[in-house]
Write a sequence for this structure.
């Protein structure tokens, strides 16, 4: 097989042409870059976020580059919002092939300092939302003959962290939900996987620094203290999501992909 054929085959396996993706928390950060990357590879993307302005900006960027996308305001904690977002996606594009449950909320407090309503908010945005969206999307995937669900976990899906009790609980729950859903829906040709980023240079990471009252320069220096000696980028995570969404990962389900520059090594 010559090099040109190899490149063509690789491009076909990564191509998402004709696919429709739903990405939550896509107004900024990791979610925005996931939406952009999936659109670059041919998917039509439904950009979901409570931040309607940010979602519209994500869509505008995709459309400027010739991609297809729509912005759908959605509070992922709301059962009705999630249902309506899926209905709007189906109305616009006729199908749903990829679901990226990316929305998350981090509160940097231990259990003694954490208010009950903050615990509920983190669990609802980070964990319950994945259940709500999956519940509405999976029937469409079954009708299409399969699909791919990628949940955004964390390094703290796999280990604990200081002053992040609710976030660690939610992300660990999301990882085991991934495994359970993969078992339940493998028969439907639906793959369910989890990408687990380390510290990524996003507005959320900056928010953590502020919550902890730390010096930004020192905070980022400590975040980069890992074998690859840098903080991650949203591109790093989006590329991993693309792999899991594509045919290159067609026999991968029920597992997690750590994207953290070796932080857990």
């Amino acid at each position: 097989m010559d090099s040109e054929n190899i490149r063509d085959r690789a491009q076909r396996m990564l191509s998402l042409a004709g696919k429709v993706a739903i990405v939550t928390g896509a107004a900024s950060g990791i979610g925005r870059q996931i939406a952009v990357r999936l659109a670059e590879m041919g998917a039509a993307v439904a950009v979901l976020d409570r931040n309607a302005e940010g979602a519209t900006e994500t869509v505008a960027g995709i459309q400027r580059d010739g991609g297809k996308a729509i912005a759908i305001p959605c509070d992922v904690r709301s059962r009705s919002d999630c249902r309506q977002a899926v209905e709007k996606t189906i109305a616009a594009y006729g199908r749903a092939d990829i679901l990226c449950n990316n929305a998350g909320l981090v509160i940097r407090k231990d259990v003694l300092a954490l208010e009950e309503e903050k615990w509920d908010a983190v669990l609802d945005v980070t964990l319950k939302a994945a259940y709500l969206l999956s519940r509405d999307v999976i029937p469409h995937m079954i009708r299409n003959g399969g699909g791919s669900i990628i949940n955004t976990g964390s390094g703290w899906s796999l280990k604990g962290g200081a002053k992040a009790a609710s976030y660690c609980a939610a992300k660990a729950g999301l990882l085991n939900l991934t495994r359970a859903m993969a078992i339940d829906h493998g028969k439907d040709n639906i793959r369910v996987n989890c990408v687990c980023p380390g510290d990524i240079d996003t507005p959320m990471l900056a928010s953590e620094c502020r919550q902890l009252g730390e010096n930004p320069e020192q905070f980022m220096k400590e975040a980069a203290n890992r074998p690859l000696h840098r903080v991650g980028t949203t591109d790093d995570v989006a590329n991993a999501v693309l792999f899991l969404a594509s045919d290159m990962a067609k026999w991968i389900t029920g597992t997690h992909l750590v994207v953290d520059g070796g932080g857990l090594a």
